[in-house]
Every structure is written in C-alpha cells, then in structure tokens.
Amino acid sequence: MSAANVSRIALGALGVLALGFGGYELLDRTRPGDPTEVALWLAGAVALHDGLLVPLVLGAGLLLGRTRLRTVLRGGLLTAGCLTLLALPLLLRPGKPDNPSVLPLDYPVNWAVALGITALATACAGWATRRATPTEGPTSDT
C-alpha cells in the first residue's frame, strides 16, 4: 500500500471520528428538542451553500471565461460568499439585544473588514499568478 493511500485512510478515519465526536457533543450538550432545531439550521446552511453560493461562484467562473486569473477570482468569490453566509445571522439580527454583552461587536463593520482583507488577498494572489505565468508573445520559430 502506498503512502498516499495510507494517509487517505488515516484522514478518512480521523474525519469519521470527528463526525462521531460532533454528533455525541450535539446530543449530549443540547436540551431535548434542540437537536431538531440544530439539524434544521444545518440543513438550511447546506441549502444556502449548495443552492445559492455554489451556483453564483460557478456562474462567475463562466462569465470570467478562460482568463488566467479565473481560479484566483473564483477562490476569492467563494471565500467572500462563505464569510457572508457565516456572518448572515449576525448581520440580520433584529435590533439591539437586551444584554449588551451578548453581541458586543459591530458585526457589519467587521464583516466589511473581512471582505476587504479577502479582496486584498485575492488581488495579491492574482498579482503573483500574473507575474509567475509567462506572457505569450511571438516565438522565434516563425
């Protein structure tokens, strides 16, 4: 058996153990009835990811065509989309909570900062990709 197969099996086993631990913690630490609510929330997150985020990123990839920066831009868009989905409950929360220590931060500003950092990292990766890829020009064979 090759080293790649051994590492795949080890990573798969580790993933199964992590899933088992997460399921145990979910059932052990939630009140009766809450696992159903958590399962519905998780199903909604999967539906948003697979039904909205992935088609948008694939559509953006199609619109970008066969540019050299296509992969970098799609990665940046996917990261921004995931950040938005994670921040959505905090961005859409109704008003200020009764207890100011529950949600103490300015989440819209922090979300915008995270998107700005993502855009900057995407731009840097695109710049590095353009510099690493040789430009096509006339060849000496013609």
Provide an overview of this structure.
The chain is mainly α and 142 residues long. The chain folds into 2 domains: 1-30; 33-95 and 103-132. It is built from 4 helices and no strands. It has helices spanning 3-29, 34-64, 70-91, 107-132. Helix 3 runs antiparallel to helix 4 (107-132). The longest helix has 31 residues, at 34-64. It is extended.
Give the topology.
Blueprint (H helix, E strand, L loop, with lengths): L2 H27 L4 H31 L5 H22 L15 H26 L10
Rounded to the nearest angstrom, the distance between the terminal CA atoms is 50 Å
**How many H/I helices?**
4
Derived from helix and strand composition plus strand pairing, the structural class reads: mainly alpha
Radius of gyration: 22 Å
Shape by Cα distribution: extended
Average predicted confidence as pLDDT: 81
- Name the beta content range: under 5%
Biggest β-sheet: count, sense, barrel?
none
- Which spans of ≥5 residues are poorly predicted at pLDDT below 50? none
How many domains in all?
Answer: 2
Task: Encode the helix/strand succession as letters.
Answer: HHHH
Number of E-type strands: 0
Instruction: Tell me the helix content.
Output: over 70%
